[in-house]
Design a protein that fits this description.
Pfam families: HTH_16. This is Helix-turn-helix conjugative transposon-like domain-containing protein. There is one protein chain. By secondary structure, the protein is α+β, with helices and mostly antiparallel strands. It has one domain. It is built from four helices and two strands. A two-stranded antiparallel ribbon has the order 1-2. A hairpin with a 5-residue loop joins strand 1 and strand 2. It is elongated and about 55 Å long.
Length: about 80
């Protein structure tokens, strides 16, 4: 059964071993969540407001995610 709601355990193990493709898989899996939390409002001179993804916030969240996974201990 291929359940898209869960990250396969072998991917998590590969991330812990530093596998770049597995790390990219994890970041891709959480991309929607990260982007939604990294959006900021930008106020333009004409008074309009637009939303954009702050690259610094996005990068910080991606790094925090990777660090948490690397620090996680399997039981």
């Amino acid at each position: 059964m291929n359940d898209k709601r869960h990250i396969p355990f072998p991917i998590l193990v590969a991330v812990k071993q530093g596998d770049a493709l597995a790390i990219a898989h994890i970041i891709n899996y959480f991309e929607g969540f990260i982007v939604s939390r990294a959006e900021v409002s930008v106020y333009r001179p004409d008074g309009s407001v637009t939303r954009m993804v702050d690259p610094d916030i996005r990068h910080s969240m991606e790094m925090a995610l990777i660090e948490m996974i690397l620090d996680f201990e399997f039981r």
